[in-house]
Amino acid sequence: MITVLGWSGVVLLFVLGTHYVLRKLAKSSLTYHGTFKQLSKLSKKIHPFIGILLLAIGLLHGNMALGRLVLHTGTILWSSVLVMFLLIVLFKSLKKGIFLKMHRVFAVVTFLLLGLHLFARNIV
Ligand code: HEM
Ligand code: HEM
């Protein structure tokens, strides 16, 4: 179950990451607009829910794997996703674009942390 939840989280993280790529493809003149526009629209709708689902799955997986709150690459990865959530809350409430930009920067950070969690899990 720990494994299933962990890999489900990885899939969700990749779906979340495609949000940016899909929007770029939908706007590009090189790609077929219709399909990517629709996919991009769908992504915009479901993206926040997938993000929250990832937080829940990550919490469950982490709790099953370790059962207590400790400093671990998993905890750090999960905290990064939480920061992303909080940045969107700030973006929505203060209407400042900088928070959306930081959300994008944290997407890169989150993927790097995922790499750490997968390949150097017990480094901390
Ligand atoms: C944790 C919950 C999350 C929530 C509530 C959330 C919500 C949002 C929202 C509302 C937007 C703006 C969408 C738009 O107007 O098109 C956005 C953009 C984006 N999100 Fe998330 N997101 C979450 C997690 C994540 C995660 C974990 C990733 C990937 C690691 C991610 C990657 C992105 C990217 C790449 C963008 C585009 C940023 C830009 O255009 O500057 N999000 N997110
Ligand atoms: C965004 C959240 C997370 C994702 C996507 C994720 C993903 C994964 C993946 C894919 C594995 C490999 C599973 C396997 O091959 O068996 C794994 C293992 C593990 N994760 Fe996470 N994880 C997340 C959060 C956490 C958290 C919060 C913790 C705990 C603090 C944690 C602790 C562990 C541990 C201890 C293992 C090794 C489990 C074992 O070998 O039995 N993870 N994680």
In words, what does this structure look like?
With 124 residues, the chain is an all-alpha fold. The model has no long low-confidence stretch (mean pLDDT 96). The relative contact order is 0.13. The protein has four helices and no strands. Helix content is 84%, strand content 0%. The protein is globular. It has one domain (2-119). Residues 13, 16-17, 19-20, 44, 47-48, 51-52, 54-55, 81, 84-85, 88, 100-101, 103-104, 107, 110 line the site of one protoporphyrin IX containing FE (HEM). Residues 13, 16-17, 19-20, 44, 47-48, 51-52, 54-55, 81, 84-85, 88, 100-101, 103-104, 107, 110 line the site of one protoporphyrin IX containing FE.
Give the biggest sheet: none
Kindly state the percentage of residues in helix: over 70%
The oligomeric state is: single chain
Count of strand segments: 0
> Would you tell me the structural class of the helices and strands?
mainly alpha
Order of helices and strands: HHHH
Radius of gyration: 16 Å
Ligands and ions found: protoporphyrin IX containing FE
Please give the count of helices. 4
Query: Poorly predicted ranges (pLDDT <50, ≥5 residues)?
Result: none
Outline of this structure?
With 124 residues, the chain is mainly alpha-helical.
Topology diagram in text:
Elements: H1 2-27, H2 33-65, H3 73-94, H4 97-119
Helix pairs in contact: 1-2, 2-3, 3-4
The structure holds protoporphyrin IX containing FE (2 copies).
One protoporphyrin IX containing FE binds next to helix 1, helix 2 and helix 3.
